């Protein structure tokens, strides 16, 4: 039997989808903001930190951290997409099946 | 190379044009309804869309501009690249899924899901058109100048060629052609930039340290190019620029529109993952190219004028480097890629602008959603041609103007009007039409006024001695105004409409999160 949106909203699948996904969504977003604004605030307030040399050569800490932020952005999207496919997608599928009344 | 006709460049570009016109012809046969025109029928895969998004985002301005910035200031160029990239995880986490699940063709669909159609659509369409127009003018002027240098073609002809080709792609091929033009261009650009970075590193036996060392030895600023410099000097500017880049990305209408070309939220996720990878990789390449340009060009008088500056300006760094490392062949290839890039980006922008006119304004505001698909398709084509002609004319008018502020302003408007409305409509129950419209308009106006009163327009363009508003980037202020405005005029709204809109939130949230009832792709 097809279920109404109101019924579906009360279902276990929906409730756990929302609570699980909200947790990872908002915490990852917060992490991204902290990393990025940490980077920006160091540039704004303590730029000398980034001028520090890494090792004996010319490579500065700023360049290492900067490339790190790029890599981090990519990894965070990969991490979330993996989790979405493994955990959230099956729950969403379940809700769709209930909505279609299968 | 100034003004010379480069045969390699012209033949490669001609090849690109023939190929893309072929695609347009193939797509035109499928242009039977608005769904194919606006969203390619929702049949693009996540991987393809990832490439197309990357293509939309990696404009000639970012290829030439960022490598030019690294060439001029070293590390500071990286600040921009990172700012342009970090918006993507945010789009993935907070925007992509609800956007795909609630919308049909434009981001206004999402904003209007429970708010009143007319006022909300008008504002969203204004936000879209303002962003698109500024971006478009900046790209047109940039392309005219670039083509003038690269192909030895008159500025006016260059602008007309770009405008005409873009009108053909969009009018006949709609989103299908625009997407494939974008995908081909993204591959060409990624390949070209990889090759260029490879040649740079090859010359240093793949030692990054060797490249940095050579650059530090030769650059006038010496070791300072490895550390933050004067680009972002005060904390307010740093934070404000960061906000504009991060949240502006999440409010760019031509980018948001791409999420409706995939069949479902799952593919939308995938497309952001691929796009972030491609864009991040591309920015690392531009960084290497910028440093390579320092190492190879500053030592070679062939590429410098009498005062020791790069011929054609810093934005020519990547182009000049290609000649230095790969001769005429490489120069021709990179020039053709830059031209293709411009063409693809202006097409995406024009399509977004045309959709705001035909889907948002014509179909939903003036005709209250009453559906006559044929007529709507016709209007979107007329809008495309109108926008194309306007872009050509404005491109010619602005030839001698300083348009550097325009992309920055486009990002500021996207971050201060489009993004707050979109974001709050998805997540904040208490949002009402009144709040969204007043707050969003205030954000838009604040961004425009502060850019005009700031150093970039008030001093650099209008020639006044001192700026009234001291900061280059308004986003910190205009976003604050927008969010406070939306909040204040929503919570004080006790009308019947407001109560209805707030009650509708729960069901909207359900659809946004699960995709139950969302727009399906069409089968061919």
Number of helices of chain B: 20
Any idea what the CATH architecture of chain B is? Up-down Bundle
What's the overall average pLDDT of chain A, rounded? Answer: 91
Beta content of chain B: under 5%
Helical content band of chain A: over 70%
N-to-C order of helices and strands of chain A? HHHH
Helix-and-strand structural type of chain B: mainly alpha
Alpha-carbon Rg of chain A, integer: 21 Å
Point out poorly predicted stretches of chain B: none
Residue fraction in strands of chain A: under 5%
Which two protein chains have the largest interface (Cβ within 8 Å of the partner's Cβ), and how many residues from each? A-B, 50 and 51 residues
Which shape of chain A, going by the Cα principal axes?
elongated
Order of helices and strands of chain B: HHHHHHHHHHHHHHHHHHHH
| Count of separate structural domains of chain B | 1
Please report the distance between the alpha carbons of the first and last residues of chain B: 48 Å
Distance between the termini of chain A: 7 Å
**Total beta-strand segments of chain B:** 0
Quaternary organisation of the protein chains: heterodimer
Largest sheet of chain A: none
Major sheet characteristics of chain B? none
């Amino acid at each position: 039997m097809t279920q109404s949106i109101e019924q579906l909203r009360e279902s276990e699948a929906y409730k756990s989808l929302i609570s699980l996904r909200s947790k990872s969504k908002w915490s990852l977003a917060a992490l991204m903001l902290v990393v990025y604004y940490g980077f920006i605030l160091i540039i704004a307030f303590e730029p000398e930190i980034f001028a520090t040399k890494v090792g004996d050569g010319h490579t500065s800490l700023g360049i290492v951290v900067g490339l790190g932020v790029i890599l981090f952005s990519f990894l965070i999207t990969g991490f979330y997409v993996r989790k979405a496919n493994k955990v959230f997608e099956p729950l969403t599928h379940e809700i769709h099946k209930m909505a279609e009344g299968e | 190379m100034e003004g010379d006709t480069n045969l390699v460049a012209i033949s490669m570009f001609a090849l690109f044009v023939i190929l893309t016109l072929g695609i347009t012809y193939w797509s035109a046969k499928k242009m039977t309804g608005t769904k194919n025109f606006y969203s390619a029928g929702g049949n693009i895969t996540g991987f393809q869309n990832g490439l197309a998004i990357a293509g939309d985002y990696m404009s000639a301005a970012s290829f030439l501009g960022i490598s030019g910035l690294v060439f001029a200031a070293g590390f500071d160029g990286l600040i921009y690249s990172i700012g342009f990239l970090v918006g993507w995880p945010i789009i993935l986490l907070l925007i992509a899924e609800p956007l795909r699940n609630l919308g049909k063709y434009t981001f206004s669909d999402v904003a209007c899901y429970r708010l009143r159609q007319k006022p909300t659509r008008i504002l969203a369409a204004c936000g879209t058109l303002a962003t698109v127009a500024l971006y478009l003018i900046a790209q047109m002027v940039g392309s005219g100048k670039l083509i003038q240098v690269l192909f030895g073609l008159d500025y006016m002809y260059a602008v007309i060629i770009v405008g005409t080709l873009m009108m053909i792609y969009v009018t006949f091929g709609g989103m299908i052609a625009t997407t494939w033009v974008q995908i081909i261009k993204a591959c060409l650009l990624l390949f070209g930039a990889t090759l260029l970075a490879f040649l740079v590193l090859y010359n240093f036996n793949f030692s990054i340290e060797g490249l940095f060392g050579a650059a530090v030895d030769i650059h006038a600023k010496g070791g300072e190019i490895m550390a933050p410099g004067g680009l972002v000097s005060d904390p307010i500017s740093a934070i404000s620029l960061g906000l504009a880049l991060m949240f502006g990305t999440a409010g760019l209408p031509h980018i948001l529109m791409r999420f409706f070309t995939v069949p479902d939220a799952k593919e939308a996720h995938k497309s952001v993952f691929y796009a972030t990878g491609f864009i991040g990789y591309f920015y690392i390449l531009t960084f290497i190219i910028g440093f390579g340009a320092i190492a190879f060009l500053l030592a070679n008088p062939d590429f410098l004028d009498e005062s020791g500056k790069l011929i054609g300006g810093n934005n020519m760094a990547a182009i000049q480097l290609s000649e230095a490392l790969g001769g005429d062949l490489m120069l021709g290839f990179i020039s053709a890629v830059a031209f293709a890039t411009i063409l693809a980006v202006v097409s995406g922008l024009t399509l977004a602008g045309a959709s705001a006119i035909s889907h948002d304004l014509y179909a939903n505001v003036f005709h209250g959603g009453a559906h006559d698909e044929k007529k709507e398709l016709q209007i979107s084509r007329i809008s495309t041609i109108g926008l194309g002609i306007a872009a050509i004319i404005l491109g010619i008018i602005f030839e001698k103007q300083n348009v550097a502020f325009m992309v920055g302003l486009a990002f500021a408007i996207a971050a201060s009007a489009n993004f707050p409305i979109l974001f709050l409509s998805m997540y904040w129950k208490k949002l009402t039409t009144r709040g969204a419209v007043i707050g969003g308009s205030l954000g838009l106006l604040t961004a425009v006024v502060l850019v005009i009163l700031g150093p970039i327009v008030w001093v650099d363009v209008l020639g006044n001695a001192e700026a009234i508003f001291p900061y280059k980037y308004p986003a910190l202020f205009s976003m604050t105004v927008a969010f406070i405005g939306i909040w204040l005029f929503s919570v004080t709204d006790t009308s019947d409409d407001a109560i209805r809109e707030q009650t509708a939130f729960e069901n909207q949230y359900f659809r946004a999160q699960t995709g139950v009832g969302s727009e399906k792709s069409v089968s061919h």
